[in-house]
Amino acid sequence: MSAAFPRKLIFGEDSINQLPEALQDLGLKGKAMLVTGRRFARESGYLDRLGSLLTSHGTDVVVFDEVEPNPSVETVEKGGKLARDEGVGFVIGFGGGSAMDAAKGIAILAAQGGSLRDYYYPAELKEPILSIIAVPTTCGTGSEVTKYAVFSEGLRKNVVASDRIVPTAAILDPQVLRHLPAKILAHTAMDALAHALEAYFHVKADLLSETFSLRALKLILKNFKQAYDGEMTYRKRLFYASMLAGFAINLTGTVIPHGLGYYLTERFEIP
Ligand SMILES: [Fe+2]
Predict the structure, then answer these.
(1) What is the CATH number assigned to the segment(s) 179-268?
(2) CATH 1.10.3720.10 fits 8-177, yes or no
(3) Is 155 exposed, middle or buried, given 0-12, 13-18 or 19+ CB atoms closer than 10 A?
(4) Residue 253 pLDDT
(5) Ligand 1 centroid vs 147 CA: distance in angstroms?
(6) Is 156 helix (H, G, I), strand (E, B) or coil?
(7) How many Å lie between the centroid of ligand 1 and the Cα of residue 27?
């Protein structure tokens, strides 16, 4: 068994405020690039909040807010080029799986250049890679703790898989889930459920991955309904569960449903 985990996990109400401390603890220096989608971060006020947290800590910020759902290679390469031109020191991904995966791709390209295609699985990813801080806003992908990033090229989904893109820190602030529409919560919870099930039935499943996958399964099944109805205590539990399911797939990998899921997403826009 072998797996990588973030060096720092911060989970709790208003834990976003701990971002400056985390940077200090992890010794992250230089300019930050904030990678996010086009609307949510701006409209919810989180973009301003993160920006002022960083500047009050003396960290300059470059915002890249062009990440679309199922991020394209072109978008990630554009972000990578901007990060290189700006001499960014580390990357913060704020959003759902798309923003966090884009942040992972940008962290690779900013440090190494080239095309994202050079790094697709089964290519072996080498250092250097910029440090990544992941701040999830959905309770599903677990990308804040995983070694996976998915990028779209037309109908194809491509995966980069490496311990080296496990975020250095993940900050899970359940408050962000207040803004999550029930429909998106349902889709992302299904993703987490799939991770937990796939990890549980995986040939590489072991005692540690089962500890994560079983607990995640129970939490999702028990709390989904109330979380869907908007009760925050239950949404917080799903947030926890999606992170646990992420740990589980870091240990085992995923199986058929994800291979098929990628196809369904691209072909029929099923999330
Ligand atoms: Fe997934």
Answers:
(1) 1.20.1090.10
(2) no
(3) exposed
(4) 80
(5) 12
(6) strand
(7) 31
Confidence of residue 155 (pLDDT cuts 50, 70, 90): confident
Q: What tens digit of pLDDT does each residue of 38-67 get?
A: 999 999 999 999 999 999 999 999 999 999
Ligand 1 is an ion; its neighbours by CB within 5 Å are 191
For residue 1, name the pLDDT band (cuts at 50, 70, 90).
confident
Taking the domains of the chain in order of start, what are their residue ranges?
8-177, 179-268
- In angstroms, what is the span from residue 192 Cα to ligand 1's centroid? 7
- 141 CA to middle of ligand 1, Å? 5
Q: Determine the Cα–Cα distance for residues 150 and 120; give it in Å rounded to an integer.
A: 9
Distance 247 CA to ligand 1 centre (A): 12
- DSSP SS3 for 8: strand
